[in-house]
Amino acid sequence: LAGPRRAAFAAAVAADHPRPADLLGGAVDGLDGPRAQGWALEQKAAYLDHADPAAAQEVLAAARTRNPMVLRPLVPVAYARLTAAGGQAQRAADLLAGRYATGAALRLAAQVISDDLAFDPERTDDAEEALRQLADHLGLAGQRPEKEIGSGPDVLWALGGLGFWVIEAKTGATSDVVHKRDSAQLGHSMAWFRERYDQTATATPVIVHRARRMARDATAPPGARCLTEDGLARLRDAFLAFATGLASGRWDTADAVANQLVGHGLRATDLPQYLRTTQAASR
Which of 85, 106, 107, 156 is close enough to 100 for a disulfide, judged by CB 3.0 to 4.6 Å? Predict the structure, then answer.
C-alpha cells in the first residue's frame, strides 16, 4: 500500500481531489485480509470527503464492516448477527490453514494472544481483542459489538448450536468485589442481546473479573458466570497447549484440530469448566 499512498498524497498536494481516492480504492483488493482493506478504505474516505462527503461516509461504512477499528461513520453501521455455522473443528482448521503458513507462525500468534489475555489496567483493549481472537482460533466466532457499533457487550462469542457468551471484560478491575456499575453493564448487555437475537438463542452472561463476589448494592444477571484470574490462566494455558500441539503436526484438517480440542478441553461444551458462579454479597 505504500506506493498508492504516496501517489495519493502527491495527487492531493496537486489539488487533484478525485484521484487520491481512486488510487487507494484501486489498491484495496490487492491487500491481504479485511483489516488492511478496511484501513485503506478509511484513508480513501478521508480523501473523498473533500469532494463528496456523502460518498465518503458510504466508503467509511464499508471500511468499518471489514475493520471495526477504523473510524465510525456518522450513520451507525447496521448490526450483523454473529453465527458459528458448521463444526467447530472444521471452522478452526479453515481459519488456521488460511492464516498460518508455518507451525512457528501459529505458535507465535498464539503466544501473543495468550500474553494479551491478562488482568492489566493499562491493556484492557488488548485483552478484549485477544478474547475475540481466541474465539476465532478455537473455531467459535467472536465479535466486539461495543467497539464495532458503539453498543452491546465488550465481547460476544457464538459457540455454535445457538449458544452464546455475552462477555463484559473487566480486566482492568482491581477490587475484590464486582461493583454495581459492572454488574449493571452485564445486565444491559444481556438486554441488548435479547433485542437482537430471537428466542431460540441462549446466552450465558459472563464477566471477566478478579472477583466473583458481588458488592452489597450489586446484583448479577440470572445465570451469570465469572471468568476469574484462575479460570483465565487455565484457559490461556489450554489454548497455548492446543496451538503447540497443532504447530508440531497439522493444523489444516478438522480431524487434527478436533483431537487437540478434545485433548485440551476446548470444545464449546468444555468451556464452562473455566467459569465460576457469581456469589451474592455477604450480609
Answer: 106
